[in-house]
UniProtKB/TrEMBL annotation:
NCBIfam families: PhzF_family. GO terms for cellular component: cytoplasm. This is PhzF family phenazine biosynthesis protein. The keyword Isomerase applies. InterPro entries: Phenazine_PhzF-like. It comes from Halorubrum halodurans. The keyword Repeat does not apply. It holds the Pfam family PhzC-PhzF. PANTHER family: BIOSYNTHESIS PROTEIN, PUTATIVE-RELATED, PHENAZINE BIOSYNTHESIS PROTEIN. Keywords: Isomerase.
Length: 319
């Protein structure tokens, strides 16, 4: 029976057992999708990243690596915290140097930057933001699904609409007035899953500007039962999508912040922080020339070998 080196890496933090844990299989060559899914289920992290080599193409501009992401139940196209975890662990191993890299995902090739300190920045897809008509999703229904007082949603709804935002993975973005109300959320997971299906989203990202820490821009919580994650501790893809959302709805008076700091995970006792940069190119936002980058630190908390059965073997995967 073969073994594969397998890591658990805590992303968007520099403290073990905080932030968002991701599984990472640094060498997944030869593993098919079914075995990847079974490994992800065995590890139990919200997402596990599987890295394989990429064949050079004729133009010499092939990505450095191919990555696939699996929750315990499904494959997803993009995962910010598992990407940060993967490149931070490769850097810690000495497998890559600081600098520019290119990662091949299901949504295309994404630029990755690793700083000298090991912080990983992931350039995401150009943001798309579609506001949701209150007639299609009112505060009462949304509040019932999230277990939040509908008044906490109406208070901010006039200035900050509910929207579906994406930088590669769509989320239903829901503004909430105060942190106390967001902390009281007690979602009906079946209702949240139905909303995710209705709006073609991976999950719901609820946020408030009423953050715990003075240097944080906002506090967020992510509920994604549709992809097997009831609540995600710290979510890179959702934070990037929210950065695009905040730019699209002109959420800040004056200049847009150079960097947004999203805090998350405190209600799960796994605090972490995602840094988001939203930049306009020479064409300006009116031409859709907007880029979003998500950054964070990560630390390896577990490094071991996983025993994996052959493809036609029904034995349980053992750690």
């Amino acid at each position: 029976m073969e073994t594969r080196r397998t890591l658990l890496v805590d992303a968007f933090t520099d403290d073990p057992l905080a932030g968002n844990v991701a599984g990472v299989v640094p060498d997944a060559a030869g593993l098919d999708g079914d075995r990847m899914r079974r490994i992800a289920a065995e590890l139990g992290a919200s997402e596990t990243a599987f890295l394989t080599p990429v064949e050079e193409d004729g133009d010499g501009d092939a990505a450095d690596r191919r990555i696939r992401y699996f929750t315990p139940t499904d494959e997803v196209d993009l995962c910010g915290h598992a990407t940060v975890a993967s490149y931070a662990s490769l850097f810690a191993d000495g497998a890559i140097d600081a600098g520019e890299h290119v990662l091949r995902t299901n949504v295309g090739d994404l630029p990755i930057t690793v700083t000298e300190s090991g912080r990983v920045w992931m350039r995401q897809e150009p943001p798309t933001v579609e506001t949701v008509d209150p007639a299609d999703l009112d505060a009462d229904r949304l509040g019932s699904a999230l277990g939040i007082d509908p008044a906490a949603l109406r208070d901010v709804g006039a200035d900050l609409p509910v929207a579906v935002a994406s930088t590669g993975l769509p989320f239903l973005v829901v503004p909430v007035n105060f942190l106390e109300r967001l902390g009281e959320a007690d979602p009906d997971m079946r209702a949240v899953e139905e909303l995710s299906a209705e709006f073609d989203a991976a999950g719901v990202y609820a946020f408030t500007f009423d953050a715990l820490e003075a240097d944080s821009t906002l506090h967020g919580r992510t509920f994604a039962p549709a992809v097997g994650v009831p609540e995600d501790p710290v979510t890179g893809t959702a934070s990037g999508a929210v950065g695009g959302y905040l730019r699209a709805v002109d959420a800040f008076e004056g200049d847009f912040p150079e960097e947004i700091r999203c805090e998350q995970g405190h209600f799960l006792d796994r605090p972490g922080h995602v840094r988001v940069r939203v930049e306009e190119g020479e064409g300006g936002a009116e031409d859709g020339d907007v880029t979003v980058a998500v950054g964070g630190d990560a630390v390896v908390s577990l490094d071991g070998e996983l025993r994996i059965p052959e493809e036609d073997d029904d034995e349980i995967i053992e750690a």
